[in-house]
Design a protein that fits this description.
Layout: H1 14-29, H2 31-36, H3 49-59, H4 67-80, E1 84-86, H5 100-103, H6 124-139, H7 146-167, E2 170-171, H8 178-181, E3 188-189, H9 191-207, H10 226-242, H11 249-259, E4 271-274, H12 286-291, H13 298-301, E5 302-304, H14 306-312, H15 320-323, E6 324-330, E7 336-340, E8 377-378, E9 388-392, H16 394-408, H17 414-427, H18 440-449, H19 457-471, H20 475-485, H21 514-517, H22 519-528
Antiparallel strand pairs: 1-5, 2-3, 4-9, 6-7, 6-8
């Protein structure tokens, strides 16, 4: 059976999804037999490119019902960052209320070595870390997979950056290694050590990519384009470096300087995975699955935040007409059809509201309220089930370079990188859908009318970064960069019986079942969290 995987397009048939999952399951649960039985799979006849596809897809959301996307990215990160707002009662992040099942969802229930545990139990360790470690171990001594091995190392760094950003200290060096070295209770590495190794790994792996070597066929980011992977690696290196500006500015500057001149060069380098609704839960766009109400009433009650809309509307930001609609409609299969995209009518919903009937809390008592449908929803372009999930973009790269230039004077001028970053963050919307595209002249006119001001440079850069990652629906990154930079300045909501004393959360607590599955290492990490293992504790790089 010949399988074709188009550039930046996930699967064309649902059967491929099942085939990849079968390979992943075999690699994880029957690794010994498939590598020792001469009648079965071995390093001479197993195709590891399928595992790369698995890891890339899993990074966009898990295969159960994308519970970690629903709970971590949307319920928590999107509302804490005031990108989205909702009155749905179980969206605990909007009110800074701790739901330990939801905050544990990205990690994955069971130990960081363990298998998926069913409903809501899949997560990054079983579905991303384990297969990417298998891929690294499988390809590291095989010259014919020279580039696939280096890409696997970069993918592992991408995966682990998000995990440590959410939780802090976590299993890293020993994670996923149970089969290989019998470490079934992995230690929690210090985040400082993790970041030190992430920088080393990304830098080394990127430098060893070879355009004259293998072209990985299972790559759904770039279809094996090694030059683009080199730019991706250097852009990721820049992002990881800039996380450290509050705790190790010298290292941040050093690695940012290394990345200068080697990062993404345009929106054509944007890394994304295009959804395919024909594959059902496995390949559908994960954010869209939730926002279209497949599991609840998110399509009716999840709106753009007042904070977000009020940032775009007064300056006539051209993105507003493409990302927001009022009075959304759907067909009989719950696919989005559109709504009123007129910028003048867009209205964000205040965060921290509910349907309780209590005057200080109920959305219907708010001065902005007319009807729920009058509040702005994400547009049909952003919620298309076949739409892209963005991983890393040129706009992010340019805005980070703008900050590096502003802080240290490296890599050109902050004004030019800011200009290029904001413009790219406007024009990239065409990658959602041609109809979401904004022409170059319109984008240029907007940026020219709102030029870079060095007196407010860091605030402008990071506010635009927040706007961009919100339109990417990558609220994990919005939250991380906000914690790092402090911008934009967000006013916390005050909701009764919240768990943060009315402050915006800074990290996710560790999954409580780690106390049973990896007790010794869990306790060490749990006791070491600055500020406590709760929503107000801080990861290492989030220095107060």
């Amino acid at each position: 059976m010949t399988i074709f995987v188009k550039m930046k397009n996930i699967f064309t048939v649902a059967g491929l999804c099942l085939l990849i999952l079968a390979f992943m399951t075999g690699c994880t649960k029957k690794f010994d037999s498939i590598n020792t039985n001469p009648a079965g799979y071995s390093k001479t006849n197993f195709e590891p490119n399928y595992v790369l596809t698995t890891v890339q897809l899993a990074y966009t959301g898990s295969t159960d019902f994308s519970y970690e996307t629903w709970r971590a990215n949307l319920i928590y990160c999107s509302t804490m960052m005031q990108g989205f707002s909702t009155v749905i009662s179980y969206w605990a992040g909007d009110k800074y209320i701790l739901n330990p099942v939801y905050t544990a969802s990205y990690w994955g229930f069971g130990s960081s070595q363990g298998p998926p545990l069913g409903n809501g139990g899949d997560g990054a360790y079983p579905e991303q870390v384990k297969p990417v470690v298998d891929l690294i171990q499988f390809t590291k001594d095989l010259p014919k997979y020279k580039n696939l091995y280096q890409i696997a190392r970069i993918m592992r760094a991408l995966v682990m950056e998000r995990i440590t950003d959410l939780y802090g200290d976590c299993p890293y060096s020993e994670a996923g290694m149970g089969y290989y070295n019998k470490t079934f209770f992995p230690k929690y590495d210090k985040q400082q050590d993790i970041y030190t190794d992430l920088l080393k790994e990304i830098d080394d792996a990127t430098s060893k990519l070879d355009p004259n070597a293998d072209k990985p066929s299972g790559d759904v980011f770039y279809n094996g384009n090694i030059a683009q992977w080199q730019r991706f690696g250097n852009t990721l290196l820049l992002r990881v470096a800039m996380r450290l500006v509050k705790v190790d500015a010298a290292t941040a500057q050093s690695y940012a300087q290394k990345a200068v001149g080697h990062t993404m060069t345009g929106n054509g380098d944007n890394a994304f995975v295009k959804g395919d609704a024909s594959g059902g839960r496995i390949t559908i766009n994960r954010n869209s699955q939730v926002l279209l109400g497949d599991g609840g009433q998110e399509n009716i009650y999840t709106k753009w935040s007042k904070t977000f809309i009020d940032m775009l509307k007064p300056v006539s930001d051209p993105r507003l007409a493409k990302i927001a609609i009022t009075h959304p409609t759907w067909d009989n299969k719950q696919n989005p059809l559109g709504g009123n995209d007129t910028p003048a009518v867009q209205k964000g919903m205040p965060n921290g509201k509910d349907l309780s009937g209590i005057a200080a809390q109920d959305i219907s008592k708010d001065p902005s309220y007319t009807t729920i449908a009058d509040y702005s929803s994400p547009s049909q372009y952003l919620t298309n089930r076949n739409g892209p999930t963005f991983i890393l973009t040129y706009a992010e790269s340019e805005l980070l370079l703008a900050e590096a230039a502003e802080r240290w004077g490296v890599g050109g001028t902050a004004a030019q990188h800011y200009h290029d970053g904001v413009k790219a963050a406007i024009t990239y919307l065409a990658q959602y859908d041609d109809k979401a595209g904004i022409d170059d002249v319109t984008a240029e006119n907007f940026v020219t009318a709102h030029p870079y001001d060095p007196a407010h440079g860091l605030e402008m850069i990071n506010t635009q970064y927040w706007i961009h990652t919100n339109t990417m629906l990558d609220f994990y990154e919005s939250w991380s960069n906000w914690r790092r930079s402090g911008f934009p300045v967000l006013v916390p909501v005050v909701y009764p019986n919240n768990n943060t004393n009315g402050t915006i959360p800074r990290r996710f607590p560790y999954p409580v079942d780690e106390a049973n599955t990896n007790p010794v290492n869990y306790k060490i990490a749990h006791d070491a969290v600055t500020g406590g293992d709760n929503l107000t504790g801080r990861v290492w790089w989030d220095k107060q």
